[in-house]
Amino acid sequence: MAGTVPLTVVIPTLDEAPRLADCLASVAWAGEVIVADAGSTDATVAVARAAGAIVIEGAGPTIAAQRNLAIARANHPWVLALDADERVAPELAAELAAVVSAPAHAAYRVRRRSFYLGRELTRGHWGNDWVVRLFSRERRFVERRVHEALEPVADVGTLRGTLLHEPYRDLSHHLDKMIRYSAWGAQDLYERGRRATFWDLAGRPTGRFLKAWLLEGSVLDGRQGFISAALGACASFFKYAHLWELGQRR
User: Fold this and answer.
1) Residue environment code for 73-98, b if the CB has 16+ CB neighbours within 10 A, otherwise e
2) How far apart are CA 160 and CA 21, in angstroms?
3) Is this model's pTM higher than 0.85 or not?
4) How far apart are the two ends of the chain, measured CA to CA in Å?
5) Is 152 exposed, middle or buried (0-12, 13-18, 19+ CB in 10 A)?
6) Which residues of the chain does CATH 3.90.550.10 include?
């Protein structure tokens, strides 16, 4: 995979064979694509190599570490960080080509259009989801288990194009990912000295649901909006339940 735009795309993966091909096809114009794989047991590595991507095997242990390892190998001065469940929309591809040829900022944020159980979510967390993903290659992601983000950048521009995002393949995938990420999030909190209170267990999940459903308008996203808001509340409960359990064990 060697397109004409002088940009390196980095993608962390773990068992993403069903979705990776579409992701790679959406960045076929990029000058370099690096896939940092954390030990997939499916055909992820084969799919990446078949598309012409550079593959780093055994990357990890966190998504941030995977991203940083790939960034360190980048040959172009600008990097676009993607996930395997994201696609670069055509208008964003054209915009990226123009931006990297004459950058005006040190990094750029982009909005993700997220699709859930067959419907785009236009409200709640997913309806206003901005991420900093285009940056110069000396930047790195902050090391943590979940919700990794680029290190703080003072000068951040905004891209007009969007990323197309399908965070969950189906409801089972959502539930599996929610349980795994809640445990990781609890570990991050525990290592920072946090301990779970009764408010964390009872108040936070309730507040998260009401905020998403009513204040952020997920009620307007139909059944998918309700399910997303309800499972967001469940994720909050699971995280603090895991945190409580860690405090009891140690």
Assistant:
1) ebebebbbbbbbbbbbbeebbebbbe
2) 25
3) yes
4) 49
5) exposed
6) 5-165
CA 34: distance to chain centroid?
16
Residue 120: beta bridge partners? 115
> Which pair of tokens denotes residue 91?
């208008």
Residue pair 74/137 in contact (Cβ under 8 Å)? The answer is yes
d(Cα 67, Cα 36) in Å, to the nearest integer?
Answer: 7
Cα 227 to Cα 191: distance, rounded to the nearest angstrom: 31
Structure tokens that stand for 211 in this block: 């905020």
Q: 72-82, pLDDT tens digit by residue?
A: 999 999 999 99
Per-residue pLDDT tens listing for the chain (250 residues): 457 999 999 999 999 999 999 999 999 999 999 999 999 999 999 999 999 999 999 988 899 999 999 999 999 999 999 999 999 999 999 999 999 999 999 999 999 999 999 999 999 889 999 999 999 999 999 988 888 899 999 999 999 999 999 999 999 999 999 999 999 999 999 999 999 999 999 999 999 999 999 999 999 999 999 999 999 999 999 999 999 999 997 6
Phi, psi (5° rounding) for residue 164? -90, 125
Closest CA to 246 of 193, 202, 208, 204: 193
Compute CA 106 distance to the chain's CA centroid, rounded to the nearest angstrom: 20
Contacts of 206 (CB under 8 A, 6+ apart): 233
Could you tell me which CATH number the domain at 5-165 has?
3.90.550.10
Q: What phi and psi, each to the nearest 5 degrees, are found at residue 244?
A: -60, -45
- Distance between CA atoms of residues 211 and 6, nearest Å: 42
Structural Rg of the chain based on CA atoms: 19
